[in-house]
Specification:
Blueprint: H1 3-16, H2 21-34, H3 41-53, E1 56-57, E2 62-64, E3 70-72, H4 84-137, H5 154-161, H6 166-171, H7 173-182, H8 184-217, H9 225-236, H10 240-253, H11 273-294
Antiparallel strand pairs: 1-2, 2-3
């Protein structure tokens, strides 16, 4: 095995090492919310009585929760199914998760962008090659190209396959260009290999986050008719670029859902309670981001 090949294999193994924080926090949330709490018979009876009252509508934007506390629409979404202890534990887990997982996502941005740029360069190179071949077929002599001397080494190949250091990227820029121009097949194979790894890692991250969200939303109380009506209006006000995510959330729980028109049509009465709360929190996230951007 060549030194360059050894560097590529070593770089690949290093990327697979390290703790799976996404899997860890998913397991912790699922474990917390699936755990049965020990409650006294009196507490259970009281809980049953309170659930019989559940939620009553008090005017357009106010509801009375089962514990007799008034609140705005969408408030107290977790209801009475979880004890205060588990609610606080859940909040703590989610806050810790955001702090730990956000940097994990940020670390993926640079290599993914670098691979995307390399793929674009390879595609451009292929287009130029096809154009040159067409010229030859048409009887035109292709313009001569002067090959420059290679300065690439095993270290530059390693940096190419694992572009996680911006300073290293700048140092091997010339080597990338040389390889693309003179050994594009090797570059293409390397890019495909690492793109597959990055896509797999991003897919794992997405899968675990979806599981966390679905698990938490499964503990939410049923959404009221007034809340569904207001949610529908909020979805209609979303910018066009955010409607695609709305369709994704619905399709994740309803594979049969299709939308052939330019406008997103959603019948909230037919959606599951988990989907409704997923949609609500997404709409809220979009609105909060808009407020931050305008402040």
């Amino acid at each position: 095995m060549s030194e360059a090949a050894k560097d590529l294999v070593g770089s690949s193994k290093r990327q697979k090492l390290g703790p799976d924080y996404f899997g860890y926090y998913t397991h912790e949330v699922v474990e917390l919310l699936s755990r049965n709490e020990d409650v006294s018979p009196f507490a259970s009876e009281s809980s049953d009585i309170s659930r019989s009252r559940y939620v009553e509508v008090r005017g357009k934007d106010r509801i009375e929760h089962s514990n007799g506390v008034y609140g705005s629409l969408f408030s107290n979404s977790l209801g009475n199914e979880l004890s205060d202890f588990r609610k606080e534990r859940l909040k703590l887990l989610l806050r810790q998760g955001v702090k730990v997982l956000a940097p994990e996502v940020d670390e993926m941005i640079e290599p993914v962008v670098a691979m995307s740029q390399l793929k674009s360069q390879l595609e451009s190179r292929k287009c130029l090659s096809r154009g040159a071949a067409s010229d030859v077929d048409a009887g035109k002599a292709p313009s001569p190209k002067k090959l420059k001397r290679s300065s690439c080494s095993s270290s530059s190949l390693s940096a190419l396959s694992s572009p996680t250091n911006s300073e290293s990227n700048r140092e091997v820029d010339d080597d990338w260009q040389f390889l693309i121009e003179n050994n594009s097949l090797q570059v293409e194979e390397t890019v495909k290999k690492y793109c597959d790894q990055y896509y797999a890692k991003l897919g794992h991250m997405e899968q675990q986050l979806e599981k966390i969200l679905d698990t938490v939303m499964s503990k939410c109380r049923p959404m009221t008719i007034h809340e569904k009506h207001k949610l529908g209006k909020q979805i209609q006000k979303l910018p066009p670029e955010n409607l695609g995510r709305v369709m994704e959330i619905i399709q994740n729980s309803n594979a049969a859902y299709t939308n052939s028109s330019d406008e997103v049509s959603v019948d909230l009465e037919k959606e599951s309670n988990v989907t409704l709360w997923r949609l609500f929190h997404y709409v809220e996230a979009v609105e909060n981001a808009r407020k931050l951007a305008s402040s």
